[in-house]
Amino acid sequence: MSLLLALLAALTLIGFHLGRGRAVALVGGESRRLHSRPNHYGLYVALWCALPALAILGAWQSCLPVVIEAIVVSGLPTEILALSDAELGLVLNDIRNLTFGGVLGREPPPYAQAASAELGRLYEIGRAGLAVVTMAIAAAGLAWGRHLVTPGLRARNAVERVIVIALLASSTVAVLTTIGIVLSLLFETIRFFDKVPVFDFLFGLEWSPQTAIRADQVGASGAFGAVPLFAGTLLITMIAMAVAVPVGLMSAVYLSEYAAKSVRAAVKPILEILAGVPTVAYGFFAAITLAPAIRDLGNVIGLGVASESALAAGLVMGIMIIPFISSLSDDVINAVPQALRDGSLAVGATRSETIKRVVLPAALPGIVGAVLLGVSRAIGETMIVVMAAGLAAKLTANPLEAVTTVTVQIVTLLVGDQEFDSAKTLAAFALGLTLFLVTLALNMAALRVVRRYREAYD
Amino acid sequence: MTDQRRLRRRYRAERRFEFYGLLAVLVALAALVVLLGTLLGKGLSAFHQTHLRLDVTFAEEVLDRQGTRAPEVLWAADYGALVKRALGTRFPDVATRRDRRALARLLSSGAQYALRDMVLADPAIIGETLSIELPASDDIDMLHKGQLARDIPEARRKVSDQQIAWFDSLAAQGAVASRFNVGFFSGGDSREPELAGIWSAVLGSFWMMAVCVALAVPIGVMAAVYLEEFAPRNRWTDAIEVNINNLAAVPSIIFGLLGLAVFLSFLGLPRSAPLVGGMVLALMTLPTVIIAGRAAIKAVPPSIREAALGVGASPVQVVVHHVLPLAMPGIMTGTIIGLARALGETAPLLMIGMVAFIVDAPGGPLDASTALPVQVYLWADSPERAFVEKTSAAILVLLGFLIAMNGFAVFLRNRFERRW
After folding, report:
1. Residue A457 has what pLDDT?
2. Where along chain B do its domains lie?
3. Which of A331, A341, A377, B375 is packed most tightly, with the most Cβ within 10 A?
4. Do A255 and B20 count as a contact with CB atoms less than 8 A apart?
C-alpha cells in the first residue's frame, strides 16, 4: 500500500517535469509566449496524473472488503447461510480472524478454513488488481494531461480552481466536526433513551449505573437519574466561580487601572502561566496537596470533611479559571473609552468610585460574557474533578462532602472494559450530549452578550 | 465638618478598593507559587535515585555452569541468586527465610537486570567480584530521601525496623549513594516505582503531536486562507465562522466522545493508538489554528495584495507568494500555543483508550501507547508513596515541554512579527 503511494508520488513528480518540459519545448524556450508560468503546466499534468488515480484508490479501498466478503459468504454451505444474521456475522468474524491471524477460540470447521483460504486469495487478487488499475489510470491521466498541454492552455486557471476547491474543502472540516459531534452523540443518546426513559434520566434522583450481572441482584437494572450529577457539577462550578470571579475581576481592575505599566507588563504574563498549566497537574495538586490539607484543617476545627471534598476540586478549578476571567475582563475594561473615566474624575469622583460607577457598568456586558465562558469552562472541565472529586452520586449542597460531576461519570463509564451496547456505556453519551448542549448555550449567550456590548461604543 | 468626614470615608474606601485589587493579584500569584513550589518540592527528588554499593561475585556456577558463555545461557541465568548471595555475604547473620526475604527487599527488582546487562556487555567479568552500585527499592529510596518518617510505629510503616537497621549500617559504611536517575528518562512504565520511566509516554506524545501537526496545521491554514481571501460573504460563511468560534469552546472531553464513536466504533481504527489520539487532538486544535491564521492574514495590509494583483498575479499567486509568507510568523505563534494546549490535554485521550498499562515504547503511530499527561494521571492513581514524586517529576517534564513551546512562540512573535 505504501509502496503503491510512493510509486504514485514518483509518477506524479515525473508528470510535473514532463508537463513543464513539454510546455517549454512547445514554445522553444520562450516562456513569455506561454499563457501561464511553466510550473503551472507541470502542476496541471501532475494533477491529471494524481487525482483520478487517488479517487479510484479511495473508492476501491472502501468497496473491496464489502465485495469480497459478499463473494465469500455466497460460497458458504447452505446450512450456514440459513443461520440468522447475527450468527452469520460471528462465522464471518471467525473466517476473518483465521485469515488475518486473530485469536480463535476453537478449532475452525472445514468450511471456515476453505472460506478463509478463499478470502485470502480474493484479497490478494484485489490488492494486485488495485495496484495495476491505479498505476494504469495514473499513467493514462499523465498521458492525457500532457496531450492537452498547448501554449494557449489556461493551465493557471485550471490549477487554481483545484486549489480553491481544496481550500473550500478544508474550511468545511470544522463544520463536519460539529456535525460529527452532534450526530454521534445524538445517535447513541437515542439508543440510550430506548432503554431508559428521558424523564427518568433528566429528573431522576438516583444514579447508580452499575448494572448487576444477574437479574435478581439488588439494583439489577441500574438507576440513571442524572439530577445528583447536575447538582454536583453545579456545586463545584459555583465554588470555582466564587474564587475565579472576584480574584480574576479584581486583578484585572487593579492591573488595568492602578498598577504601574512595568508592574502590569511583568505580572500579566506570569498570570497567563496559570492558564498554560495542564489540567492534569491541577488535578494532581488538588488530590495530593489541597484535599488532604482541607481535611486535616477540618479535623482540627472539628468538622468532618470528606477526603474528596467538593471544596478542594472547586478551589483548584477556580484557580485554573482566574487567568481566563482576568484576561477577558482586562480586554473589556481597556475598551471602555478614556473619556468616560476623565468625565467622572472631572466631577470629583475618586478612582474607585469611577471604576465602580462608570467603568464596570460600561464594561458589564463583556464581563458577563467572560463569566459565562468561565462557567462553561468549569462545567466541561474533566481532569481536576476526575482526580479530586468523588465517584458517589450524592444530592447535597455541602461543599465539605464528596460529590460527583457529569464529566467524572462520563470518564468512569467509558474507561476500562465495556460493551458498546449496554445502557451504562450509552449513558455516557447522553451525559455528553447534555454537556455539549449546555456549554453550547452558554457560549452562544456569551458571544451574543459581548457582541451587543461592542455595538454600543463603535 | 461632616464634609471632611465624608471625604475621609471616601478616601478610606478608595484605599480599601485598591488594596482589594492588589490582594487579588497577590492571591493569584500565590496560587501559582504554591502550585509550582509543591510540584518542585515533591518532584525534584525523583531525578535522583538511591543506590546501594555491594560486593557482587559473578559466580560461574550460578551463571554458566557449562562455561559455554553463550548469550542465551547468560540471558536466562539466575541473576536474582547473585543479588541474594551478595546481600548474604554483606549481612552473614541473617538466618531465617523471612529475614532473608526482607533483606532482599532492600534492593529493587531491577538490580538483577542491571547485573544481567553488565554480564551480557562483558562476559569476561564472570568469576570476578566487583563492588557495584545497585538500585534500591522504592521504600528504601523514600527512606533515604527522608519522605518516609522513621518515628511512626513499625506496624504502620512500609519499612521494618530491621530493614532500617540494615540500611543504616550500609549508610554508616558509605555504601549508600544518590545517583542521577537515568532510568526515569529512558525507561517505560512499570509497576515498580523505582523502575518506572517516562520515555515510552514521551514517544507516544511525540507520535500524537506529529499526527496532530500533520493534520491540523495544513487544514487549519487552508481553511483560514479560504475564509479570509476567497470566501464570499454569505450565510454559509457566517455559519462556518460561528461554528468555528463555538467549536473552540467545546469541552475537550466531547472531542474524546467523538473520537470513540467515529474513529473507534465506526471506522474501526485501533484503540490506544497515537494515530487516533492525534486525530482527536487535531480536531480540537483546528479552531485555534484557524482563528490564529485568520487574525494573522487579516493583519497583512491590503496594499500588498493590490500591488501584486496590479502586476498581474492571480488571487492564488497573491496568497502563496505574498500573504502567506508575511502572515507565517503570526500563524506559527498561534499554532504553537494551540499545540502546547493539545500536548497537555488528557481527558479526550482517556475516552479513546490510551490509559492502558503500556511498557514498550511505541515505534510508530499505530502501536498502542500512552501519552505524557495520561502517564501523569495513571501514576497519580497509584497507591505507592514513591509514585507521588514520579508523578510530580513527570508533570515537571511536561511543564518543561510546554514552557519551551510557549517560549518559542513568544520568540517567533518578537523576532518576526511586523507591524505596518
Report:
1. 57
2. 48-180, 199-416
3. B375
4. no
Whether residues B251 and A381 touch (CB distance < 8 A) is answered with yes
Kindly identify which residue of chain B lies nearest to residue A166, measuring between CA atoms.
B222
Q: Which domains does chain A have, with CATH numbers?
A: 2-153 (no CATH), 223-457 (1.10.3720.10)
Dist. CA B294–CA B356, nearest whole Å: 39
Contact at CB, A250 and B226, closer than 8 angstroms: no
**What's residue B122's pLDDT?**
83
Query: Where residue A418 falls among pLDDT bands split at 50, 70, 90?
Result: low
Is residue B408 within 8 Å of residue B336, measured between CB atoms?
A: yes
Q: Which of A9, A17, A10 is nearest to A54 (CA)?
A: A9
Burial class of A160 by CB neighbour count within 10 A (0 to 12, 13 to 18, 19+): buried
Residue whose grid cell is 535515585 = B49
Q: Is the pLDDT of residue A232 over 80?
A: yes
Give CATH superfamily name and number for B199-416.
MetI-like (1.10.3720.10)
Residue A212, pLDDT above cutoff 60: no
| Residues in chain A within 8 Å Cβ distance of B20 | 250
Dump pLDDT digits (tens) for B218-243: 999 999 999 999 988 888 888 888 88
What confidence category does residue B196 fall into, taking pLDDT thresholds of 50, 70 and 90? confident
ipTM given for this complex: 0.89
* DSSP assignment letter at B367: S
CA distance A173 to A180: 10
